[in-house]
Design brief:
With 122 residues, this protein is of the alpha/beta class. Helix content is 42%, strand content 22%. The N and C termini lie far apart (28 Å).
């Protein structure tokens, strides 16, 4: 599974994710750091990557467009550094790997993690 780390998260995540066995790139190494979220999502779809973010807009975009991808992992914690939550993220990637490969929004916080299968419909 390939991950693209959004600008809302540190490039340190790339090393953490690679050490855990995933292919990962930080958006700043791929595209314009000022790119719109839609551009990042389009890139992720084209490259079959999962977006890893702290930005709530990605979930909103998935809901508004009712698209089937890309999969998004959204972290909702105060401290989003690898030293604080890498265990939470790595466990969620393993736990929800099948859902992420099919298309899902994974929401992580300190208390729980949950998956919503794409497309998001109310």
């Amino acid at each position: 599974m390939k991950l693209v780390v959004d600008m809302s998260l540190s490039p340190q995540w790339v090393t953490t994710l690679r050490e855990a066995g995933w292919e990962a790139e930080h958006w700043s190494a791929i595209g314009d750091p000022r790119a719109a979220d839609r551009e990042i999502m389009d890139w992720a779809v084209a490259h079959e990557a999962v977006v890893f973010t702290h930005d709530l807009d990605f979930g909103s975009l998935l809901a508004l467009t009712r698209s089937k991808g890309p999969s998004v992992i959204q972290v909702r914690t105060q401290d989003v550094t690898p030293s604080a939550i890498s265990f939470l993220v790595v466990n969620a990637l393993r736990r929800f790997q099948a859902e992420l490969e099919e298309g899902a929004l994974i929401i992580l916080d300190e208390g729980r993690s949950r998956a919503r299968i794409l497309p998001l419909v109310h």
